[in-house]
Amino acid sequence: MTQIIAHRGASKIAPENTMPAFKLAYQLGAEGIETDIHLTKDQIPILMHDERVERTTNGIGHVVDFTFQQLKELDAGSWFSSLFSRTSIVSLKEFLTWAQCKPLYLNIELKNNKIDYKHLESIVFEMIMNFRLQERTTLSTFNPDSIKRMNMYNDQINIALLTSRRKRNLCTYAKQIGAHALHIKYRLLHQNLVRQCQEKKMPLRVFTINKTTHMMRCYQLRCDGIFTDLPEKGIRYRELFAHQNNTIKSEENDDNYFR
Which of 5, 108, 178, 235 could form a disulfide with 32 if both were Cys (CB 3.0 to 4.6 A apart)? Predict the structure, then answer.
Protein backbone atom coordinates (compact mmCIF):
# COMPACT_ATOMS: atom_id res chain seq x y z
CA MET A 1 0.00 0.00 0.00
CA THR A 2 1.30 3.44 -0.93
CA GLN A 3 2.15 5.46 2.17
CA ILE A 4 0.68 8.97 2.57
CA ILE A 5 3.36 11.40 3.76
CA ALA A 6 2.33 14.96 4.64
CA HIS A 7 4.64 17.35 2.79
CA ARG A 8 5.81 19.98 5.32
CA GLY A 9 2.77 18.84 7.32
CA ALA A 10 -0.76 19.52 6.09
CA SER A 11 0.68 22.54 4.31
CA LYS A 12 -2.39 23.48 2.25
CA ILE A 13 -4.43 24.15 5.37
CA ALA A 14 -1.80 25.37 7.84
CA PRO A 15 1.55 27.19 7.58
CA GLU A 16 4.21 24.76 6.34
CA ASN A 17 6.75 23.23 8.71
CA THR A 18 4.96 24.45 11.85
CA MET A 19 3.41 22.51 14.71
CA PRO A 20 -0.18 23.32 13.57
CA ALA A 21 0.62 21.78 10.16
CA PHE A 22 2.14 18.66 11.73
CA LYS A 23 -0.67 18.22 14.24
CA LEU A 24 -3.34 18.62 11.54
CA ALA A 25 -1.58 16.08 9.32
CA TYR A 26 -1.57 13.57 12.16
CA GLN A 27 -5.25 14.23 12.98
CA LEU A 28 -6.17 13.76 9.29
CA GLY A 29 -4.57 10.32 9.24
CA ALA A 30 -1.24 10.90 7.50
CA GLU A 31 1.10 7.95 8.00
CA GLY A 32 4.23 10.05 7.70
CA ILE A 33 5.49 13.62 7.86
CA GLU A 34 8.13 15.25 5.69
CA THR A 35 10.01 18.29 6.92
CA ASP A 36 13.12 20.31 6.06
CA ILE A 37 16.22 21.14 8.09
CA HIS A 38 18.56 24.14 8.14
CA LEU A 39 21.21 25.06 10.70
CA THR A 40 21.13 28.30 12.67
CA LYS A 41 24.12 30.48 13.47
CA ASP A 42 24.47 28.60 16.79
CA GLN A 43 24.21 25.17 15.09
CA ILE A 44 20.61 24.37 16.05
CA PRO A 45 18.68 22.37 13.43
CA ILE A 46 15.38 24.11 12.67
CA LEU A 47 12.46 23.27 10.39
CA MET A 48 12.16 25.49 7.33
CA HIS A 49 12.17 24.91 3.59
CA ASP A 50 13.93 28.05 2.33
CA GLU A 51 17.46 29.22 3.03
CA ARG A 52 15.96 32.65 3.75
CA VAL A 53 13.18 33.44 6.22
CA GLU A 54 11.11 36.12 4.45
CA ARG A 55 8.67 33.91 2.51
CA THR A 56 7.28 32.22 5.62
CA THR A 57 8.03 34.67 8.45
CA ASN A 58 8.05 38.40 9.18
CA GLY A 59 11.86 38.41 9.23
CA ILE A 60 14.49 39.09 6.55
CA GLY A 61 17.73 37.22 5.94
CA HIS A 62 19.34 33.78 5.82
CA VAL A 63 18.58 31.20 8.51
CA VAL A 64 22.32 30.72 9.06
CA ASP A 65 22.67 34.37 10.12
CA PHE A 66 20.19 34.04 13.00
CA THR A 67 20.57 32.36 16.38
CA PHE A 68 17.78 29.98 17.32
CA GLN A 69 16.48 32.40 19.94
CA GLN A 70 16.27 35.19 17.34
CA LEU A 71 14.33 32.90 14.99
CA LYS A 72 11.89 31.93 17.77
CA GLU A 73 10.87 35.59 18.02
CA LEU A 74 9.69 35.65 14.38
CA ASP A 75 6.05 35.12 13.39
CA ALA A 76 5.88 32.04 11.14
CA GLY A 77 2.10 31.90 10.76
CA SER A 78 0.58 35.27 9.83
CA TRP A 79 1.80 35.05 6.21
CA PHE A 80 -0.58 32.09 5.80
CA SER A 81 -3.56 33.32 7.81
CA SER A 82 -4.28 35.57 10.77
CA LEU A 83 -5.60 32.43 12.48
CA PHE A 84 -1.99 31.30 12.85
CA SER A 85 -0.45 34.58 13.98
CA ARG A 86 2.43 34.22 16.43
CA THR A 87 3.08 30.64 15.36
CA SER A 88 6.80 30.08 15.92
CA ILE A 89 9.58 28.34 14.03
CA VAL A 90 10.15 24.78 15.26
CA SER A 91 13.46 23.18 16.19
CA LEU A 92 14.16 19.57 15.22
CA LYS A 93 14.32 18.72 18.93
CA GLU A 94 10.81 20.12 19.50
CA PHE A 95 9.48 18.21 16.50
CA LEU A 96 11.04 14.89 17.54
CA THR A 97 9.75 15.33 21.10
CA TRP A 98 6.21 15.63 19.68
CA ALA A 99 6.62 12.80 17.15
CA GLN A 100 8.32 10.33 19.47
CA CYS A 101 5.15 8.81 20.90
CA LYS A 102 3.21 8.78 17.62
CA PRO A 103 3.25 5.96 15.02
CA LEU A 104 4.56 8.20 12.25
CA TYR A 105 7.16 7.63 9.56
CA LEU A 106 9.48 10.65 9.47
CA ASN A 107 11.23 12.00 6.39
CA ILE A 108 13.77 14.66 7.24
CA GLU A 109 15.20 16.50 4.26
CA LEU A 110 18.62 18.03 4.79
CA LYS A 111 18.52 21.37 2.95
CA ASN A 112 22.20 21.36 2.07
CA ASN A 113 22.12 21.52 -1.71
CA LYS A 114 22.54 25.34 -1.79
CA ILE A 115 24.30 25.92 1.54
CA ASP A 116 26.35 22.85 2.44
CA TYR A 117 26.16 23.26 6.22
CA LYS A 118 29.17 21.87 8.05
CA HIS A 119 28.32 18.93 10.35
CA LEU A 120 24.60 19.04 9.45
CA GLU A 121 24.48 15.27 8.85
CA SER A 122 26.11 14.34 12.16
CA ILE A 123 24.05 16.83 14.21
CA VAL A 124 20.74 15.56 12.80
CA PHE A 125 21.74 11.89 12.94
CA GLU A 126 22.83 12.08 16.58
CA MET A 127 19.60 13.80 17.58
CA ILE A 128 17.50 11.13 15.87
CA MET A 129 19.54 8.42 17.59
CA ASN A 130 19.07 10.13 20.97
CA PHE A 131 15.30 9.99 20.44
CA ARG A 132 15.60 6.36 19.22
CA LEU A 133 13.67 7.19 16.07
CA GLN A 134 16.18 5.88 13.53
CA GLU A 135 14.11 2.81 12.61
CA ARG A 136 11.24 4.91 11.27
CA THR A 137 13.17 7.87 9.92
CA THR A 138 14.65 8.58 6.48
CA LEU A 139 17.22 11.29 5.90
CA SER A 140 16.92 12.68 2.37
CA THR A 141 18.89 15.20 0.33
CA PHE A 142 19.45 16.47 -3.21
CA ASN A 143 23.17 16.61 -2.42
CA PRO A 144 25.04 13.43 -3.54
CA ASP A 145 28.11 14.45 -1.49
CA SER A 146 25.93 14.57 1.62
CA ILE A 147 24.76 11.01 0.94
CA LYS A 148 28.37 9.89 0.58
CA ARG A 149 29.19 11.54 3.91
CA MET A 150 26.30 9.66 5.51
CA ASN A 151 27.63 6.30 4.35
CA MET A 152 29.14 5.86 7.81
CA TYR A 153 25.54 5.66 9.14
CA ASN A 154 24.46 3.29 6.36
CA ASP A 155 23.38 0.39 8.57
CA GLN A 156 21.76 2.57 11.21
CA ILE A 157 19.32 4.81 9.32
CA ASN A 158 17.66 4.97 5.90
CA ILE A 159 19.08 7.49 3.44
CA ALA A 160 17.27 8.72 0.31
CA LEU A 161 18.45 10.53 -2.79
CA LEU A 162 16.10 13.32 -3.82
CA THR A 163 16.08 14.26 -7.49
CA SER A 164 14.10 16.13 -10.11
CA ARG A 165 16.61 15.47 -12.91
CA ARG A 166 16.49 12.74 -15.51
CA LYS A 167 19.45 10.39 -15.39
CA ARG A 168 20.17 7.04 -16.98
CA ASN A 169 20.15 4.12 -14.54
CA LEU A 170 18.92 6.41 -11.76
CA CYS A 171 18.14 3.57 -9.37
CA THR A 172 21.61 2.04 -9.86
CA TYR A 173 23.26 5.44 -9.37
CA ALA A 174 21.36 6.04 -6.12
CA LYS A 175 22.47 2.67 -4.79
CA GLN A 176 26.09 3.26 -5.82
CA ILE A 177 26.39 6.50 -3.83
CA GLY A 178 24.92 4.88 -0.72
CA ALA A 179 21.19 5.67 -0.82
CA HIS A 180 18.63 3.13 0.37
CA ALA A 181 15.65 4.90 -1.25
CA LEU A 182 14.86 7.13 -4.21
CA HIS A 183 12.57 10.17 -3.92
CA ILE A 184 11.66 11.62 -7.31
CA LYS A 185 9.68 14.48 -8.81
CA TYR A 186 6.46 13.20 -10.39
CA ARG A 187 7.54 13.90 -13.98
CA LEU A 188 10.33 11.30 -13.60
CA LEU A 189 7.87 8.53 -12.72
CA HIS A 190 7.59 5.69 -15.21
CA GLN A 191 6.95 1.97 -15.09
CA ASN A 192 10.54 0.97 -15.89
CA LEU A 193 11.91 2.98 -12.98
CA VAL A 194 9.34 1.44 -10.64
CA ARG A 195 10.34 -2.03 -11.85
CA GLN A 196 14.07 -1.29 -11.44
CA CYS A 197 13.55 -0.04 -7.89
CA GLN A 198 11.46 -3.08 -7.01
CA GLU A 199 14.14 -5.40 -8.39
CA LYS A 200 16.79 -3.65 -6.28
CA LYS A 201 14.44 -3.52 -3.27
CA MET A 202 14.81 0.26 -3.19
CA PRO A 203 11.73 2.18 -1.93
CA LEU A 204 10.45 4.72 -4.47
CA ARG A 205 8.56 7.76 -3.20
CA VAL A 206 7.20 10.63 -5.32
CA PHE A 207 6.82 14.38 -4.68
CA THR A 208 4.75 16.58 -4.58
CA ILE A 209 1.46 14.84 -5.38
CA ASN A 210 -1.69 16.96 -5.04
CA LYS A 211 -3.60 16.24 -8.27
CA THR A 212 -6.10 13.37 -8.30
CA THR A 213 -4.77 11.86 -11.55
CA HIS A 214 -1.21 11.89 -10.22
CA MET A 215 -2.29 10.21 -7.00
CA MET A 216 -4.15 7.46 -8.85
CA ARG A 217 -1.17 6.79 -11.13
CA CYS A 218 1.15 6.48 -8.14
CA TYR A 219 -1.26 3.99 -6.55
CA GLN A 220 -1.57 2.06 -9.80
CA LEU A 221 2.22 1.79 -10.14
CA ARG A 222 2.48 0.77 -6.47
CA CYS A 223 4.89 3.50 -5.45
CA ASP A 224 6.03 3.09 -1.86
CA GLY A 225 4.94 6.58 -0.84
CA ILE A 226 3.73 9.97 -1.99
CA PHE A 227 4.53 13.35 -0.49
CA THR A 228 1.40 15.50 -0.54
CA ASP A 229 0.25 18.85 0.83
CA LEU A 230 -3.24 17.28 1.10
CA PRO A 231 -2.94 14.09 3.20
CA GLU A 232 -6.71 13.76 3.69
CA LYS A 233 -7.24 13.77 -0.10
CA GLY A 234 -4.42 11.26 -0.55
CA ILE A 235 -6.05 8.86 1.91
CA ARG A 236 -9.51 9.32 0.37
CA TYR A 237 -8.35 8.56 -3.16
CA ARG A 238 -6.21 5.65 -2.03
CA GLU A 239 -9.34 4.13 -0.51
CA LEU A 240 -11.22 4.79 -3.76
CA PHE A 241 -8.44 3.15 -5.77
CA ALA A 242 -8.48 0.09 -3.50
CA HIS A 243 -12.27 -0.15 -3.81
CA GLN A 244 -12.10 0.07 -7.62
CA ASN A 245 -9.37 -2.57 -7.68
CA ASN A 246 -11.36 -4.93 -5.49
CA THR A 247 -14.45 -4.43 -7.67
CA ILE A 248 -12.47 -5.28 -10.83
CA LYS A 249 -10.96 -8.38 -9.20
CA SER A 250 -14.39 -9.48 -8.00
CA GLU A 251 -15.85 -9.10 -11.50
CA GLU A 252 -12.93 -11.06 -12.98
CA ASN A 253 -13.51 -13.86 -10.46
CA ASP A 254 -17.19 -13.93 -11.39
CA ASP A 255 -16.29 -14.16 -15.08
CA ASN A 256 -13.95 -17.06 -14.41
CA TYR A 257 -16.58 -18.84 -12.34
CA PHE A 258 -19.19 -18.73 -15.09
CA ARG A 259 -16.88 -19.78 -17.93
Answer: 5
Give whole-number Cα distances, 233 to 24, 25, 246, in Å.
Answer: 13, 11, 20
What region does 29 belong to: left with phi over 0, alpha with psi -120 to 50, or beta? left
pLDDT above 50: residue 18: yes
Distances (CA, A) of 168 to 101, 187, 192: 41, 15, 11
Q: Which residues of 47-75 are buried (b: 16+ CB within 10 A; e: fewer)?
A: bbbbebbeebbebeeebeebebebbbebb
Give the 3-state DSSP-derived string for 139-198, with helices as H, strands as E and coil as C.
EEECCHHHHHHHHHHCCCCEEEEEECCCCCCHHHHHHHCCCCEEEEEHHHCCHHHHHHHH
Task: Report the alpha-carbon distance of residue 188 to residue 192 in Å, rounded.
Answer: 11
Mean of pLDDT values over 21-50: 98
pLDDT by residue (tens digit) across 122-150? 999 999 999 999 999 999 999 999 999 99
pLDDT tens digits along 177-203: 999 999 999 999 999 999 999 999 999
pLDDT of residue 39: 98
d(CA 94, CA 109): 16
**What pLDDT score does 176 carry?**
96
Closest CA relative to residue 92, chosen from 53, 144, 129 = 129
CB atoms within 10 A of CB 254: 10
pLDDT of residue 106 exceeding 60, the answer is yes
Q: Active-site residues: which are they? A: 7, 49
Give residue 136's domain range.
3-257
Total domains, the chain: 1
The domain spanning residue 135 has which CATH number? 3.20.20.190
What is the spatial distance between Cα 213 and Cα 233, in angstroms, rounded to a whole number? 12
